[in-house]
């Protein structure tokens, strides 16, 4: 991630005058459609200064007579979006965060801070970087906390850090993290879920639940579900048969097959000077082995490429090699310890709200991401963030968020996350399960935020076989800006729709399974991750939904 260079206010004002005046709403805050602008600005979201990339692009457009495109780009960069921090020294990040939060509070705005500095970030791929180890990361987080102080901030903590654990790096399961398919998240494919999930579903829904709901569902509704019910029962029977011989206790990493690496010492990610416990005193050396409720931990992101839409070579997925089981245990434990430390340091600040990484709806099943969130300390955070830098629709994000929040509440009451509804359950069946098993009020549950910066047209669906590795997450063509940032979502569990990813900035030099350097979908060399991408920026404003 590169730090954006910002431009002076005066040239931007001149350009604004040339490119056509825009409404004050676009300049300072965004509200939900139909909502009146607030009388005071205390809950407005903060817009950081624009970088040099959009400034130069708008200048060129104006010189070529395309004032409407320049005006649309200006509105995009003047819409509230997150400020990203990563790869800076503790001294640098403290100063940068302090400047950002002070500037925001002077305007009466709330900044969104995306912290992106965890060790082993992005599996060493396009956005590689981060702190050199746990001790360095803790010092960095301490500096961020000092920079925030008592001022307000919404904190998006380490995007992709949980949906892409170190144990996922270099494995076929990592493909699901980029919107391909999460079939291989289940051992043996999507029909091979834990037998306990099928058993719990039968007893809770069709046993006790049948009496509770009997007579309350309309006849037409029941008939419409009849076929889906029969199919689901058949699937559950197959799932139970598949899992019948599975071990009773499986750790996410511990029980992976051991490999012979006698000449390779185990790499421990936690430095000797790192404290053994987080600020709250929770031990961090066995976080990956801690049972959750009545859960039986399963291997996460198990490789099964035959169940994915395309067979993808491992070397096209992540640059980092697959880890040995011992290395995976160590690095996962370090990742969880780092996130727990950050939550415990930042959430108690008087004006801060912390949201952990929750991936997106086409990445991990609900039960898997819930386990990861719990290991990372979501109990002590405000909640989780969905769809960061991705393209899933608002409807899918809201449903996924509700399922995760509900499952977290269910586990807090002693339930097993494997019993929770998955995002691919029939909607009505999942609604029934929630009605029976989750009775918590929204204020008692974990909340979430979503990234709507580039989801206006939903995810890109490349033609089958068009690329060896489609990388549908990487600078996909034809996407558009999504819902404008707002804290008025109409959903009691969703705190905000945000622009976390800076629209117009590249995801990386996408190769889609080729040797490169050209992106075969675009016929050009894409800018490096975090650099301004003029062609994509124009696509986003022209395809915005709702339109600019």
UniProtKB/TrEMBL annotation:
Residue stretches spanning the membrane: none
MF terms (GO), sorted A to Z: hydrolase activity
Enzyme Commission number(s) from the entry: 3.2.1.-
Catalytic site: 160 (proton donor)
Pfam families noted in UniProt: Glyco_hydro_6 (PF01341)
Keyword Protein transport appears in the UniProt entry: no
Polar residues composition bias: residue spans: 277-286
Compositionally biased residues, Basic and acidic residues: 262-272, 515-525
Ranges of Low complexity composition bias in the record: 224-235
InterPro entries (UniProt xref): Beta_cellobiohydrolase (IPR016288), Beta_cellobiohydrolase_sf (IPR036434), Glyco_hydro_6_CS (IPR001524)
Keyword annotations: Carbohydrate metabolism, Cellulose degradation, Disulfide bond, Glycosidase, Hydrolase, Polysaccharide degradation, Signal
Ranges for region Disordered: 224-314, 503-527
Family: Belongs to the glycosyl hydrolase family 6.
PANTHER family in the record: 1,4-BETA-D-GLUCAN CELLOBIOHYDROLASE C-RELATED, PTHR34876
Identification of the protein by name: Glucanase
